[in-house]
Design goal:
CATH class of the largest domain: Alpha Beta
CATH architecture of the largest domain: 2-Layer Sandwich
Number of domains: 3
Structural class: alpha+beta
Strand content: 15-25%
CATH topology of the largest domain: Beta-Lactamase
Helix content: 40-55%
């Protein structure tokens, strides 16, 4: 086989041998030798022939040889070819589907509880790290807003999204505002801006400040000031992580330096959030392996993720982070099913109006 032939022109035997190498490596975590593949009698060829095929697959960039005397391991391109063309499609087992549906139904009244439950399910059912990025505050679609007077000149702003997320924010105002007026302001904002994103609402209110109407309507200036503070974006998404202990100490992440870098990733957050944000584009499951991103390349990991939403638009993303040799035929359907189930649960939560914290 010529080393210049593209992967899509691999023979059936080439593909079977590549699939065997990947399966064996996923199970063992050790570089795979031609002798190990030759034990699978269905190939009907000698270890020497298999060795030549594996060398050709390495030339194509589908396998790698960590050491000159070692066997071979899948490359990033090899994994992707396996996922796209060689892996047998599997459905999530019925027992796991019932577990997911039951746990999400138990927390259906609270959007925040659904988020935490989903991250736990991802980790527990995969034995890897479950991660989830919640919707950006600025892109939250408003269902209702309330202002609650506290002692002194403090006001609690309670924002409820269409999908049931609740955001509480403490505001410091210039002067005490009577409870009745705070109620009217909350009602005004809810009635006039329900169904719009918080970003759009703030932009509209800023525009209203420049109009004559704001000088005539006594309620509007205070409503604008309160909304401007209460609906201000925090500038980041919330990151939920479950199951970091699953990876620490494994063969893939056993040295102290890699453990430290892994934990730093969850502490700093922004790199992982940025990677998950990329998974908001499009639909379905996306697999990020090794050199696909700086984060997975640095740690030698893989991310299987997909978006979720409650109104036909992606509002957040969830996924599983683990070693590049994770069992994709099991992980991909798990992420896909849980993403669909969470989206449905959020839609149901929105139709019921959710429950406010």
């Amino acid at each position: 086989m010529s080393a210049t032939r593209p992967p899509e022109e691999l023979t059936a035997r080439d593909r079977e041998i590549l699939k065997d190498v990947i399966h064996t490596y996923i199970l063992s975590g050790e570089p795979v030798s031609s002798r190990a593949v030759a034990k699978h009698a269905r190939h009907g060829v000698s270890a020497a022939t298999i060795r030549n095929v594996m060398a050709d697959l390495e030339d194509l960039g589908l396998l790698e040889q960590p050491h000159s005397s070692a066997g071979r391991v899948p490359s990033r391109a090899g994994y992707h070819l396996y996922i796209q063309a060689l892996m047998e499609a599997r459905e999530l087992p019925e027992l796991e589907r019932r577990r997911i549906d039951g746990d999400l139904q138990a927390g259906a009244a609270h959007a925040e509880r659904l988020i935490g439950t989903s991250a736990q399910l991802l980790s527990e059912l995969s034995g890897q790290i479950g991660i989830l990025v919640t919707p950006a505050f600025a892109e939250t679609v408003l269902e209702a807003v309330d202002f609650v007077p506290l002692s002194g000149r403090r006001v609690l702003c309670v924002v409820v999204s269409e999908s049931g997320f609740v955001e509480n924010k403490l505001l410091q105002v210039e002067e005490e505002i009577p409870r009745e007026e705070l109620v009217r302001i909350g009602n005004y904002l809810t009635e006039n801006f329900r169904g719009q994103t918080l970003r759009a609402i703030r932009e509209r209110l800023i525009s209203l400040m420049r109009e004559e109407r704001a000088q005539v309507d006594r309620l509007l200036p205070r409503a604008i000031r309160l909304a401007n503070q209460g609906l201000a974006s925090r500038g980041e998404r919330d990151l939920v992580v479950e199951g970091t202990a699953h990876l620490v100490g494994r063969g893939e992440i056993s040295d102290v330096d890699r453990v430290r870098r892994l934990l730093d990733t969850f502490t700093e957050r922004q790199h992982l959030v940025a990677l998950l944000n990329q998974c908001l584009d499009g639909t379905g499951v996306r697999v990020v392996i090794g050199e696909d991103s700086e984060l997975t390349s640095d740690l030698g990991l893989s991310l299987v993720a997909r978006p979720f939403g409650a109104d036909g638009r992606a509002r957040g993303s969830l996924g599983i982070l683990g070693p590049a040799r994770m069992p994709y035929d099991r992980i991909i359907p798990l992420v896909d099913y849980l993403g669909e189930s969470l989206s449905r649960a959020l839609v149901d939560n929105a139709s019921r109006g959710g429950e406010r914290a």
